[in-house]
């Protein structure tokens, strides 16, 4: 496992970036016909959602 330490400002900015990109990713998942690509996008979506939750829990 890799650990990354972020300042509160960095964590807040990262959260903003993830929250801004997440809705676009959802749309891309829905509009993708290729099953393998959709599977990869869904994995990325799950990762991003987890990161958003973790950053919020950490107080970002």
Task: Detail the topology: elements first, then pairings.
Layout: H1 8-31, H2 35-57
Helix pairs in contact: 1-2
Question: Approximately how much beta-strand content do the residues carry?
Answer: under 5%
Helix percentage range: over 70%
Radius of gyration: 13 Å
Computed structural class: mainly alpha
Gross morphology: elongated
Helices and strands, in order, run as HH
How many individual helices? 2
Overall pLDDT: 95
In terms of per-residue confidence, which ranges show pLDDT below 50 for 5 or more consecutive residues? Answer: none
Describe this structure in words.
The chain is mainly α and 60 residues long. It has a domain at 34-60. The protein has helices spanning 8-31, 35-57. Helix 1 (8-31) packs antiparallel against helix 2.
């Amino acid at each position: 496992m890799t650990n990354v330490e972020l300042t509160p400002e960095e964590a807040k900015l990262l959260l903003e970036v993830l929250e801004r990109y997440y809705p676009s990713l959802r749309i891309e998942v829905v509009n993708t016909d290729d099953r393998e690509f959709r599977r990869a996008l869904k994995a990325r979506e799950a990762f991003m959602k987890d990161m958003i939750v973790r950053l919020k829990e950490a107080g970002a």
